[in-house]
Automatic annotation (TrEMBL):
It comes from Mesopusillimonas faecipullorum. It is found in: Cytoplasm. The gene is hisG. Its main location: cytoplasm. The keyword Nucleus does not apply. Heteromultimer composed of HisG and HisZ subunits. Catalyzes the condensation of ATP and 5-phosphoribose 1-diphosphate to form N'-(5'-phosphoribosyl)-ATP (PR-ATP). Has a crucial role in the pathway because the rate of histidine biosynthesis seems to be controlled primarily by regulation of HisG enzymatic activity. Residues 56-214 form the ATP phosphoribosyltransferase catalytic domain. Belongs to the ATP phosphoribosyltransferase family. Short subfamily. It catalyses: 1-(5-phospho-beta-D-ribosyl)-ATP + diphosphate = 5-phospho-alpha-D-ribose 1-diphosphate + ATP. InterPro entries: ATP_PRibTrfase_cat (IPR013820), ATP_PRibTrfase_CS (IPR018198), ATP_PRibTrfase_HisG (IPR001348), ATP_PRibTrfase_HisG_short (IPR024893). This is ATP phosphoribosyltransferase. Pathway: Amino-acid biosynthesis; L-histidine biosynthesis; L-histidine from 5-phospho-alpha-D-ribose 1-diphosphate: step 1/9.
Length: 220
């Protein structure tokens, strides 16, 4: 890797991007454009040695692992699922404690989840978090038929596709609006700084100060 090219930080739109901005500012870096108003997928910063690339949240670990980005920020949920197919290859030096939420089991109002589990019913569960869901129900000794969806998860119990969903819950507003209720927390989620291991070896003089700045800003 050439040391002359700028460092590349992979981010996704939305909450992670917005909550990363103050951390960058604390590190002395200003982002001059917003991905919400710009169609650009590569964004400059006030530091000519750092640029941002905007990718889907689930793709952030892939860009970092294969060296297209030197570092990135991704949720624990995304990293857990990524590791199932791509063990190793990512260094996670800092839990940034941003974009906090929970991975939860939710069902439609009126569905007796506890009774279904106690009776040994085989549940149909819709989710995009396949590994986490399988491991959670395996620990409980509950048999499930897993249905993988990529969006509009809340619809599945309402139209009879699934008995339950496993999804991220922040305020719970989307669940309430669709007459669903959370019935079980699986794990607390926050976003982590991830670093390409080869970049850390070859560009440590530039990467380590940025890693340290993120760690200090998130601890403040």
């Amino acid at each position: 890797m050439s040391s002359a090219r700028p460092l590349t930080l992979a981010l996704s739109k939305g909450r992670i991007f917005e909550e990363t901005l103050p951390l960058l500012q604390a590190a002395g870096v200003q982002v001059t454009e917003s991905p919400e108003s710009s169609r650009k997928l590569i964004l400059p910063t006030s530091d000519p040695g750092l640029r941002l690339i905007i990718v889907r949240a689930t793709d952030v670990p892939t860009y970092v692992q294969y060296g297209a980005a030197d570092l990135g920020i991704a949720g624990k949920d995304v990293l857990f699922e990524h590791a199932a197919q791509n063990p190793g290859g990512l260094y996670q030096p800092v839990d940034l404690d941003i974009a906090r939420c929970k991975l939860c089991v939710a069902v439609r109002e009126g569905f007796d989840y506890q009774a279904a589990v106690a009776q040994g019913s085989r549940l149909r569960v819709a989710t995009k978090y396949v590994r986490a869901t399988r491991e959670h129900f395996a620990r409980k000794g509950v048999y499930i038929d897993l249905i993988k969806l990529y969006g509009s998860m809340e619809l599945a119990p309402l139209v009879g596709l699934a008995d339950a969903i496993v999804d991220l819950v922040s305020t719970g507003g989307t669940l309430r609006a669709n007459h669903l209720v959370p019935v079980e927390d699986i794990v607390d989620i926050s976003s982590r700084l991830i670093v390409n291991q080869a970049s850390l070896k070859t560009r440590a003089d530039r990467l380590q100060p940025l890693i340290d700045a993120f760690a200090q800003a998130s601890a403040a």
